Amino acid sequence: MSNDNKPLKLVSLWEMSKIETIEEFYQRKFDWIPDNIRDEIGHFNVFRLEPFVEGKPTNIPYRRRDFYKIMLVKGNSQVNFADGVVEIEKQALSFSNPQIPYKWEHLDKIRDGIYCIFNQHFFHQFGQLIQYEVFQPNGTHIFELSDEEANSVSEIFERIASEFNSEYKYKYDVIRNQIFELLHFALKKQPSGSS
Questions:
Q1: In this structure, what is the dihedral angle of CA atoms 94, 100, 101, 104, given to the nearest 10 degrees?
Q2: Are 187 and 139 in contact (CB under 8 A)?
Q3: Residues in contact with 54: Cβ distance below 8 Å, sequence separation at least 6, in sequence order
Q4: What DSSP element (H or E) covers 179?
Q5: Which of 49, 62, 51, 48 shows the shortest CA–CA distance to 108?
Q6: What's the CA gap between 163 and 148, in Å, rounded?
Q7: How far apart are CA 105 and CA 77, in angstroms?
């Protein structure tokens, strides 16, 4: 993974200040909005990342979102942040949140991936996500993974997807714990001085 300080494309202040809502995400990505998007427990969903298709745009607009996103992506990509560009050479685990605008560009043929999105209400009275470095402005948000690490992260996501599709009464509590498992997996990859 390289963190090159390449010049960013100019983005208007309006684009940078506009916050994509979770409803706008669904409309842009899927052309529909779930009925239960503003349930009392907060919103959560999990998706497969679509493989790269020639001629189909894969860029994500540069802006902040009003939701959190954790993603396992396999394939060459680059992520533009306000303070620089991070290139993913093979596969990575990424964390994004409402405080940090970004733009994701898929540069290669994305082979595989999975991600989950959730709003702050999903973790109400369950933990303060923003206290962890992966969700702080100066923290590390992208973690390049070895094949073995990518398999471990993929297994966690598969458990999340399986739980999400289950009828278990407390499935969202299980999912919150699995999200913390992803978070701590990433934090353990950081040098000890930075945590």
A1: -10
A2: no
A3: none
A4: helix 171-189
A5: 51
A6: 23
A7: 6
The three-state (H, E, C) secondary structure of 84-101, written as one string: EEEEECCEEEEEECCCCC
The torsion angle over the Cα atoms of residues 96, 99, 101 and 104, rounded to 10 degrees, is: 0
Q: Which two tokens stand for residue 172?
A: 């969202």
CA distances, 164 to each of 41, 44, 73, 78, 193 (Å): 14, 9, 20, 29, 36
Instruction: Show the domains of the chain with their CATH numbers.
Output: 13-194 (2.60.120.280)
> Which uninterrupted H or E stretch holds 151?
helix 147-164
Is the Cβ–Cβ distance between 119 and 26 less than 8 Å?
no
Please state the pTM of the whole predicted model.
0.77
Please tell me the distance from the alpha carbon of residue 106 to that of residue 52, in angstroms, as a whole number.
8
pLDDT at residue number 66: 80
> Consecutive sets of 10 residues in the chain, 195 residues long: mean pLDDT of each?
46 53 66 63 83 56 76 87 84 89 71 88 83 87 95 97 95 95 94 55
Amino acid symbol at 103: K
Please give the single-letter amino acid code of residue 4. D
Q: What's the token pair of residue 82?
A: 């306000």
- Quote the CA–CA distance of 105 and 61 in Å, as a whole number: 9
